[in-house]
Structures are given as structure tokens and as C-alpha cells.
Sequence to fold (424 residues):
Amino acid sequence: MTEEHAIDPWRMAVKQLEKVGEVLDIDENIMKILKHPIRIVETNFPVVMDDGRVEIFTGFRVHHNENLPNKGGIRFSPHVTREEVMALAFWMTFKCAIVGLPYSGAKGGVICNPREMSLKEIEKVTRRYTHQMINVFNPRSDIPAPDINTSAREMAWIYDTYSMWGGHSALGVVTGKPVELGGSLGRAAATGRGVYFVTRQAMKRLGIEMEGATVAVQGFGNVGSWFARIIAENGAKVVGVSDWKGGIYNENGFDVEDLYKYVYENPDNSDRSVVGYQHSTKDITNDELFALEVDVLAPCAVESVITKYNAHTVKAKIVAEGANGPTTPGADEILKDNNVLVLPDILANAGGVTVSYFEWVQGNDALFWTEEEVNSKLEEIMVRAFDKIFDHADECCINDMRLSAYTVALETIVKQYELRGIYP
Ligand code: GLU
Fold:
């Protein structure tokens, strides 16, 4: 494995920050604080599996800083590491600052493979992990949400476990809940919808017509599938889609609603993969998907997929980062030199936490909004954030939207430290 492939996400996040530090004159004490998550909770907990065997799971919850209540999702994956969760919490801080939410970053993860677990085992892991974090999660200070391999189903179990423990229903303790349990309309689609809004704005600025524009999407989970559905609904042609199993291609564009049904509403497709979809004219690998001649490439799966080893193959005009951390710092330089406009994760996928915030506000007030209200408020926030970062890039760092996004976020974050001071 090469060095760049092996780069852990935390080192990647720190590198990104250091790059901003080189350009901006940031107080070195604040830089020091930002490079150290304020709290890392690690737990090993036992779960009785279906066959009677006891398995020990390791889970994490990281708070990047505590200027504001902590917010961030929980992922279940065999690839979870302490460093990954640290990086994801760090990115949440920047993401929340960019869209102006009153949160500091958090993230959680459990090392497990839900694909190899029964529903009962997944529920037990979720509930026991919540129990381990019972004094960490709190509607006023740490509010989890879905991330990779977790969804409204797991959020309902977290809500239930926490509420049973506390003796009252705590609507504000977790977001991404099912609508029937105080979830927000529009939350499930929110991250993908947000990626769509910023992509649409970028296309306008670059003079690319939405009608007939070509799009490739890596990952067809929550983010990728919603992004693909929404951009296709608005006239674009989704010509390539890939996931953990492989990829599919059709130069005329897929009927994404039909593809969605094939993946999610088809009992024969227990892997929930796009592979095997009958309207694919060519099977492709993930690397071939990255190299497609398209207007937009949206990596919507995991970290470090575009590296300095494959970045030169990217022919897209726009890379819209639906995933967290999909592009390594080495790849960033290559994409910039090749005039590819990267819409960085901390901007592009901020729609999820934005609607999480709406859900938290609605739950705390017990007053719920219509889906139209949710979507239009989301649109307003995403467009404003995009405009600010795009315009700022013109002044600070042409074609480096990541640097611009960090700069814009840091204005707020640095101010938070200045205003609060360092206790005591
Ligand atoms: N896990 C999502 C993210 O990475 C959502 C976090 C949230 O809603 O709190 O942005």
C-alpha cells in the first residue's frame, strides 16, 4: 500500500488545516487547540450474538471542541478507527461553521460489519453503544445523527434507549429519527439535496446547462442515491454509478428512480448493489467511473478515494464531495492544476446536518414544519454558503474551494475562541 493510500483521515484533516495556516495568519495557540480534539471516548462492550457467542465491539465518540453543543453522526463500519472518527468530528466543526449552525463538531463510530449481522444483532449493538454513551449524548450538548450504515432505524433505537434511561422522551437527543418519532420531513434526502444545490450553483457559475449534463456518482447509499435522483429529476443524465461491489454505465443516462427500486425495493438484491442492473450497457470499476468524461463527478461513499495516483484521470469539470474526505491533499493539488472545480465536503455535504439542525429545533419546540419549508430553508442556506465560498475563492485562492471554505469557516471558529476565551 502506498503512502497516500495509507494516509489516515486525521493526518489528512490536519494537513488541510496546516495549508490554511500557511495562507492565513491564524493565532498559533488556536491552531494548536484545533489540532487536538477535546474529548475522545472509547468503549469496548460485549454483545450476545444470535449463536450465543459473546462478541466485543469497540465504539468511539469524539468531540472536536466544545464552543457550542456537539453535533455529528455515528457510523457502523469495519473500517472505523479512532483517527477516522477524530477527523470526521473535526470536519463537522468546519461544516457547521460554514452553514452557520450553532454547533461544534462530533462524530461516533462502532467497528462492526452490519452486512454480516442480523437485524437483532444490529439493534443490540446500537442500544448497547448508546448505553455506553449515556452520559455523553445529551439534547443540550451532544446530538448524534445517521452516517454510513446507520439510518432512521438506528436513530429510533438511540432515541428509545436514551429516553427509557432518562424516564422521559428526549426528542432533541438525536436527529435523523423516523418522522413518526419526531424526525423532520426532508431529513432523509437532505444531504443529497444539499449536494445538488451546490452543484447546481457551481454549474451556473461555470456556464454548464443542467439539462443533459452528464453525472457520475460513486456510492449509492443515502447520499449518492438521493443526489442522483434529484439531479436526474432536474434534467441531468446520470451515466455512471458505482458502489462497493462494482459499477454500471449507460451513456444515455439511467432512469434513476428505476435503478433506486432495483437496489432498494427488490428482495432478490439482498446486497443492495447497483451491480446486475439490466439497463447497464457496460460494467465499470470504481476507477473507470472516476475517469469518465462527465460534467460532474460525485464521490458519495468513503474517504481517500481520489488520491494522487488517480486524480490525473479525472475528466469531470466539477467534483462534488458528497462523502467526507474523499479527496486526499495530494489529489487536491492535481485537480486544482487541471482546473477541476472541487466542491469540498465541508460545504457540499452540509445539507444533512443543516436539516438535522432543523429537526432539533422542531423537536425542542415540538412544532413541525412542512417539507416545502424544510427544503426551501435548506436551499437558502446552501446557496448562501456556496456563494460566499465561491466569491471568496476569487479573492483568496482561485479554483481552491477547499481553502476558501476553510478560510470562511475559520473566521467564525476563531471568533468563537476569542469571544469565549480559554477557561478558566
Ligand atoms: N453524518 C452526517 C454528516 O457527516 C450528518 C451529521 C448530522 O446530521 O449531525 O454530515
The pocket of glutamic acid is lined by residues 71-73, 145, 147, 175, 324, 349, 352-353, 356 (CB under 6 Å). The chain has two domains: 37-181, 190-348. The longest strand covers residues 39-48.
